[in-house]
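Risk mitigation, structural track. In case the binding assays with D-xylitol-5-phosphate fail to produce interpretable data, a predicted complex structure has been prepared as a fallback.
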Amino acid sequence: MKSIDPSQILIAPSLLSADFTRLGEAIELMEKAGADLLHCDVMDGHFVPNLTFGPPVIAAIKKHTDIPLDVHLMISNTDDTIGWYIAIEPRIISVHAESCIHLHRVIQQIKDAGILAGVVLNPGSSLHMIDDIIEMVDLVMLMGVNPGFGGQSFIESVVDKCIHLDEMCQTHKIRPIIEVDGGINAANAPRLLAAGANCFVAGNAVLGAVDPINAYQELRDGLEAAHQEISEKRNE
Ligand code: DX5
Ligand code: ZN
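Fallback model:
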């Protein structure tokens, strides 16, 4: 598996926007693009109003590629089934704060397996939900849409939420990966970077594009340019 640097700008193309009859081809395209992570959306038709894939498909993807897997669980029974996903040993597993009965235990289980542990918040969930867990996690993911479908419009108020999350991290003197998922495109990603995010899930904007490799590169170029601008401003 390729390594990732959690302090760098990371792009995680989401396989949700791939043609499910040609997943292998989509993965190979993302290898050519140099994708940092492959985002795997697990939906159970219960926590979210859609169904995708589960452990057997993720295990097959893991065998097929060196790109580190970023598994996003949108399921109701996280506490009961987390072991299925831990057994696959992806690089990252993120669980919804809204779905875990024993969030602390689930995060601990993921970390004990040497996997990066992420906690996710829906747009309607307050940052306070993760007050008592934030120092434990490797990643915090903010949903930019209500989860369940690709191709939805980004909810603008998530930019401010990202700024508040970044402040919260500074207060705690921690630097988890800050990932944003849903509605990301070349226009809003640089603004989210300025708001403190460093990991960007892109479904429609990359694998939903006519030329996914080019779309990936454009997203990266925009983020690198924004990063440069932010650093120059800080040094002024
Ligand atoms: C949405 C999923 C996302 C989805 C994002 O519920 O969690 O990962 O793939 O797709 P876009 O980027 O098209 O909004
Ligand atoms: Zn996702």
